[in-house]
């Protein structure tokens, strides 16, 4: 079908020398209808997806090598070498029996396995992060087949017609067809921080530098202000950005605060174990002389291995990864890993109103002009409904001022209203038509298109009666927009056709710029009484929770260049109040928030009364609570604001820069703040907040880039759900740290006790300790990482984000239970040692110690699940733990009873009685922890009674 090929990409440098029309011609595309589906398919076969090759920051080898920089693995390597030297010395002395260098080989194997595991996890984590990035990849609004659609940027092909608006991150290089005050930040490409004002009409010299090509926009740059339409000229690696791909931001792999703290813990443990080794050898030599040096070294090596929690890093990585996956399932996309663990500490959630707490599905319910207020019927975006005055339906054409207001609403508009119907043969309805009316673009503007359509104005140019020439776009700072239009009349020469500016915006800001108001056909001077009447009507609508917009117009002689000068001496038309109902799930989410000790705060650009009405419906504010407005806030000193944030839960008519001050003031009051945002100007506040949250649907690419988390459904309830998941992650991490480190302390003390109580041998060899730390501790720890949420998790206050991981008794628990663990095992060790001496199996005591330590940990894993006694827990609520405990117990028994494993791990067959004794001792740790829980419960209830 297409005979002309899009020009080869190496001629791309000359695109700026073509007019917009010539560019469309060269690319064989149509700016009114876009490309046809077959042509898109053909072009995407030629040009491939619009994405750059993912640049891997670290090679596989680099990730692999980094595993061995871990100080704990280095310690293990040293132990392996020392153990090898020891074997060699014993062999030379002729005192060695068994398989030579077994420990060395085993430790090195485990070091390699551990490194491999770390490598696999890290590369999986990198892939997962890349996949998450893919999920948050920018969407573009494209015109194809005469229909508008939201597509993944990767699907763009040369010749596509795309829309640009403030906050869009450009996904391809494109030639502008329309540009309304379009300002683009090109610093990613040119290094120039000042925004560039773009023009669609410019045709430039061929040798214009990249930074001067004002008629082109480039992939990787950001629209800061204005709107536009453009035709894609280059995609993927053919874009200017593709040519300098190394500038691309790398995949983020920063360690989370927790991982950093764990690395520090690892270092501390290594240093501690070194000291312990030195101490054991020192005391041993002092007591028994140099004769037992070899034995002492063996004890020290075992202790050094025992102290390293080899299973911990894996458990942490898995928990964080599972946390992000669980959050994505609940529609919260994590962009920076630390957010997973810090979300649990959030105690203040600052949320936008429109779209987050409300549905962002606007329907105009009321229109007020000079002669009175009209009720508008109809639901959703379907353009059918009536205008009712009093009890009577009227024809809008009878009221010129109402007509003008509706025209202003349709012309001052960048949204599109479209019916997406689908034939469905199986559908029972006789028409066979299914589908719905959809709005592309701002729902506020969509509602005005629907309103206009209800009066018969079904298309943006009002059947060609108006031509839109330019616009002063909406921004949250000005809170208004205007469009300059030419009233086209075939009978009048073009030079004499009337120019009109139509404006809409927040009633206060627009009314302040009006001097006259329209009443029927007449324009009457606005006096104070009339102003007060209009503001009272505005307040009345806002008080009922309606979102209110004002409308005005002004005849022009010439097309203006400056918004500030143009938007003066306007003629006031009237008000439109639209309903944006609260999301049904928002109220329960607010209640959950409050129960969880988290304060919800609403920050909106809307009217204070509208904001308060919705906040009250949702339980964020109570009747009579104060609402702080942007202008009031602007007058406050930082000190006053700091005092006010404690009392204020609703902020209205705020601009993005106020958001930053609110976050800072809250943080100074010690709050840990999650803050939502969607606009370009929200980026600083999102960055400053402890958790910056961008909107997945309505959010600009710039706000997403600045955020820690993206809400895929723009829903407040999702923030609360993510906070809950954050708490679960943090709880689980503490749970398995309790479990793993408690066991390590027990092992170290047991080994250190052996020479001190005069046993002539080491109870555990390094290989057995590694087995315990990696397998018998590791598997249950992984299962604890997926422990389901405690049902009360959202009924307690958040924890201090700065607290140490060992806070709230965790450090003390590890030491206490570690000592108890060791005491039970030492009793068993000294008893079984005595029994074994002179028996047929004199080494069996070591296997008894080994087995008891392993199986005791199984009981500990079950006990550590909750603060509640085990008998109150459903054992099947974490089936992974049951499986881990069963598998580990079977594996341990195999080590004791399967001959090749016995030989390898240096274990000895135990009699049934011996095994029974081990199992009996093993349950003691479980019993101890359970008794502790009961005691604590009793103690707390007694204290409560006394209080
Ligand atoms: P939130 O901050 O909760 O998302 P919001 O949408 O009201 O609320 P802004 O987008 O900053 O915040 O809008 C501020 C005000 O500007 C609105 O209350 C409305 O009066 C006006 N307004 C909103 N959208 C438009 C628009 N497209 N054109 C003109 N005026 C608008």
Automatic annotation (TrEMBL):
Signal peptide start and end residues: none
Ranges that cross the membrane: 70-89, 101-120, 265-287, 299-322, 736-757, 769-789, 810-833, 845-864, 876-898, 910-936
E.C. code: 3.6.3.8
Pfam families referenced in this protein's UniProt entry, alphabetically: Cation_ATPase, Cation_ATPase_C, Cation_ATPase_N, E1-E2_ATPase
Major localization class: membrane
GO cellular component, one term: plasma membrane
Ranges for domain Cation-transporting P-type ATPase N-terminal: 14-88
Localization per Swiss-Prot or TrEMBL: Cell membrane
Molecular function via GO: ATP binding; ATP hydrolysis activity
Membrane topology note: Multi-pass membrane protein
Top-level taxonomic group: Bacteria
Keywords assigned: ATP-binding, Cell membrane, Hydrolase, Membrane, Nucleotide-binding, Translocase, Transmembrane, Transmembrane helix
Family that this chain belongs to: Belongs to the cation transport ATPase (P-type) (TC 3.A.3) family. Type IIA subfamily.
Name of this protein: ATPase, P-type (Transporting), HAD superfamily, subfamily IC
Organism of origin: Rubidibacter lacunae KORDI 51-2
């Amino acid at each position: 079908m297409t005979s002309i090929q899009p020009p080869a990409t190496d001629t791309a440098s000359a695109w700026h020398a073509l007019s917009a029309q010539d560019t469309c011609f060269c690319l064989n595309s149509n700016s009114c209808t876009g490309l046809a589906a077959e042509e898109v398919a053909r072009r995407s076969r030629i040009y491939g997806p619009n994405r750059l090759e993912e640049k891997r920051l670290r090679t596989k080898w680099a990730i692999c090598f980094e595993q061995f920089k871990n100080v704990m693995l280095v310690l293990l390597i040293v132990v392996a070498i020392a153990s090898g030297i020891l074997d060699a010395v014993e062999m030379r002395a002729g005192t060695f029996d068994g398989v030579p260098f077994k420990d060395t080989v085993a430790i090195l194997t485990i070091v390699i396995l551990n490194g491999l595991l770390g490598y696999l996890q890290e590369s999986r984590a990198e892939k997962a992060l890349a996949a998450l990035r893919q999920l948050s990849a920018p969407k573009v609004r494209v015109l194809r087949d005469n229909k508008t659609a939201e597509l993944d940027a990767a699907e763009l092909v040369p010749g596509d017609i795309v829309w640009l608006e403030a906050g869009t991150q450009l996904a391809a290089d494109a030639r502008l067809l329309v540009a309304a005050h379009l300002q683009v930040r090109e610093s990613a490409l040119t290094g120039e921080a000042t925004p560039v004002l773009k023009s669609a009409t410019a045709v430039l010299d061929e040798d214009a530098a990249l930074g001067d090509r004002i008629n082109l926009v480039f992939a990787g740059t950001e629209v800061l202000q204005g709107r536009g339409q453009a035709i894609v000229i280059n995609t993927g690696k053919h874009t200017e950005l593709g040519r300098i791909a190394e500038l691309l931001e790398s995949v983020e792999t920063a360690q989370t605060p927790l991982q950093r703290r764990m690395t520090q813990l690892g270092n501390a443990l290594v240093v501690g174990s070194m000291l312990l080794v030195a101490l054991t050898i020192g005391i041993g030599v002092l007591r028994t002389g140099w004769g037992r040096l070899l034995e002492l070294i063996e004890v020290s090596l075992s202790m050094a291995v025992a102290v390293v929690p080899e299973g911990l890093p894996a458990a942490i990585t898995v928990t964080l990864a599972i946390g992000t996956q669980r959050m994505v399932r609940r529609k919260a996309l994590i962009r920076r890993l630390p957010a997973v663990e810090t979300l649990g500490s959030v105690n203040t959630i600052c949320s936008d109103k429109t779209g987050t707490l409300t549905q962002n599905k606007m329907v105009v319910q009321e229109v007020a002009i000079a002669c009175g207020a009209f009720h508008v019927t109809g639901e959703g975006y379907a353009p059918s409904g009536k205008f009712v005055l009093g009890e009577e339906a009227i024809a809008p054409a009878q009221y010129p001022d109402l007509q003008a207001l509706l025209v202003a609403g349709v012309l001052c508009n960048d949204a599109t209203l479209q019916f997406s119907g689908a034939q469905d043969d199986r559908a029972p309805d006789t028409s066979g038509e299914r589908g719905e009316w959809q709005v592309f673009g701002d729902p506020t503007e969509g509602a005005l298109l629907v309103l206009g359509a209800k009066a018969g104005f079904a298309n943006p140019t009002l059947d060609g009666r108006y031509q839109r020439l330019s616009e002063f776009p909406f921004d949250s700072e000005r809170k208004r927009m205007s469009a300059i239009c030419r009233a086209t009349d075939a009978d009048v020469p073009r030079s004499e056709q009337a120019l009109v500016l139509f404006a809409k915006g927040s009633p206060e800001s627009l009314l302040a710029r009006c001097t006259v108001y329209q009443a029927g056909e007449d324009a009457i001077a606005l006096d104070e009484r009339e102003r007060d009447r209009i503001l009272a009507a505005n307040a009345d609508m806002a008080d009922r929770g309606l979102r209110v917009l004002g409308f005005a117009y002004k005849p022009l002689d010439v097309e203006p260049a400056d918004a500030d000068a143009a938007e003066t001496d306007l003629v006031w038309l009237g008000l439109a109040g639209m309903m944006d109902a609260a999301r049904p799930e928002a109220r329960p989410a607010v209640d959950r928030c409050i129960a969880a000790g988290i304060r919800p705060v609403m920050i909106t650009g809307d009217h204070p009364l509208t904001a308060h009405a919705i906040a009250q419906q949702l339980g964020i504010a109570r009747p009579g609570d104060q609402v702080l407005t942007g202008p009031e806030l602007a007058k406050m000193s930082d000190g006053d604001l700091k005092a006010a944030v404690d009392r204020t839960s609703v902020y209205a008519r705020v601009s993005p820069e106020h958001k930053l001050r609110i976050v800072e003031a809250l943080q100074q009051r010690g709050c840990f703040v999650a803050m939502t945002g969607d606009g370009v100007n929200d980026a600083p506040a999102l960055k400053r907040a402890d958790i910056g949250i961008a909107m997945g649907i309505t959010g600009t690419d710039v706000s997403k880039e600045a955020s820690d988390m993206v809400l895929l459904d723009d829903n407040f309830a999702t923030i609360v759900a993510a906070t809950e998941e954050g708490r679960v992650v943090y709880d689980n991490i503490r749970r398995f740290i309790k479990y793993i480190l408690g066991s390590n302390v027990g092992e170290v003390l047991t080994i250190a006790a052996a020479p001190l109580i005069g046993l002539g041998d080491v109870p555990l060899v390094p290989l057995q300790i590694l087995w315990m730390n990696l397998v018998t501790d590791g598997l249950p720890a992984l299962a604890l990482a997926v422990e389901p949420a405690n049902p009360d998790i959202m009924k307690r206050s958040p924890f201090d984000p700065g607290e140490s991981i060992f806070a709230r008794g965790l450090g003390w628990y590890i030491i206490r239970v570690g000592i108890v663990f060791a005491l039970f095992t030492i009793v068993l060790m000294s008893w079984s040692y005595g029994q074994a001496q002179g028996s047929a199996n004199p080494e069996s005591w070591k296997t008894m110690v080994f087995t008891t330590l392993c199986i005791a940990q199984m009981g500990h894993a079950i006990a550590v699940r909750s603060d509640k006694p085990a008998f109150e827990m459903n054992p099947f609520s974490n089936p992974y733990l049951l499986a881990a405990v069963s598998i580990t117990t079977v594996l341990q028994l195999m080590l004791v009873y399967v001959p090749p494993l016995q030989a390898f791990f240096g274990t000895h067959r135990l009699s049934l009685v011996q095994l029974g004794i081990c199992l009996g001792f093993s349950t003691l740790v479980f019993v101890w922890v359970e008794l502790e829980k009961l005691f604590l419960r009793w103690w707390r209830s007694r204290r409560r009674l006394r209080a």
